[in-house]
Design goal:
This protein has helices at about 5-10, 30-40, 50-60, 105-120, 130-140, 155-160, 165-170, 195-205, 205-240, and strands at about 15-20, 65-70, 75-80, 85-95, 125-130, 145, 180-185. The chain has about 240 residues and is α+β, with helices and mostly antiparallel strands. The protein has one domain (about 15-240): Gcn5-related N-acetyltransferase (GNAT) (Aminopeptidase), CATH 3.40.630.30. Strands 1-2-3-4-5-7-6 form a seven-stranded mixed sheet, with helices on both faces.
Length: about 240
């Protein structure tokens, strides 16, 4: 089979995307392994989750899974609730390397968004991501960029960031900013005029997302390097 033939076959692949259940627990370890490998490949961090945690989400009906019509795992995403249900996050979005670049992430996000709205109709839905593509998908669903202060103050949520490689940056900014961009969906459509305008601008093209991500990455990595250099200078002074 040629590369073009293989791509055509992949593009026509039929996926079953639905709420996960007990019968899908067999995929938990594969999912967590792929989450970690994907984060390492991107050079970004995620809140690490164990296979048991993923199984719990499946059993609670708070996850969406994508399978091929032959039963091969293709993608996954789960729901977390914070602040006694006032906030909801769609976390851990992952697509198998075998099925990337064919729009599956967008379809999974749509399904987990619908599931979140069904289970938590009055909750605000938020996300933190460094991925331009995920940001664009979020904007299509009605999310708009916000500051970190607009997110949940639940300490358990922020503790989840401790396993992220960028955690020192987050803490150096007093949890007010980091490489991730915060986005929020409000069930009561009461966005301010400037928020509506920003959301509209974000929807226009992917380059805006990519530019924002690159600017933030450059800014914070330079900040981290500068801080590291300052520490080295202080150490030399103390040793002299």
């Amino acid at each position: 089979m040629t590369v073009s033939q293989k791509n055509a076959t992949m593009f026509n692949q039929k996926f079953i995307i639905k709420p996960a259940g007990e019968e899908h627990c067999q995929y938990a370890e594969t999912i967590t392994n792929e989450m970690e490998q994907s984060a390492q490949a991107r050079g970004t961090g995620i809140a690490k989750r164990s296979p048991e945690y993923i199984k719990t989400k499946m059993r609670e009906g708070k996850a969406v899974i994508a399978l091929t019509n032959t039963g091969e795992w293709a993608g996954f995403c789960y729901i977390e609730a914070w602040g006694h249900g006032k906030f909801v996050a769609n976390s851990g979005l992952i697509v198998s390397p075998n099925f990337r670049k064919f729009g599956l992430a967008r379809e999974i996000k749509k399904e987990v968004f619908k599931l979140s709205r069904k289970k938590y109709p009055d909750s605000k839905i938020f996300g933190l991501t460094t991925g331009a593509a995920v940001m664009k998908i979020n904007s299509e669903l009605g999310y708009y960029p916000v500051s970190y202060s607009d997110l949940t103050t639940d300490e358990d949520f922020w503790k989840g960031c401790q396993s992220c490689v960028n955690y020192p940056i987050l803490m150096s900014k007093n949890r007010s900013n980091c490489l991730c961009t915060a986005m929020l969906y409000e069930p009561k459509n009461v966005k301010k005029a400037e928020q509506k305008k920003l959301s509209s601008e974000f929807k226009k093209n992917l380059s805006l997302f990519e530019r924002l991500v690159n600017i933030k990455r450059s800014m914070f990595l330079n900040f981290a390097k500068g801080k590291e250099a300052l520490v080295k200078v202080k150490d030399k002074v103390n040793q002299s």
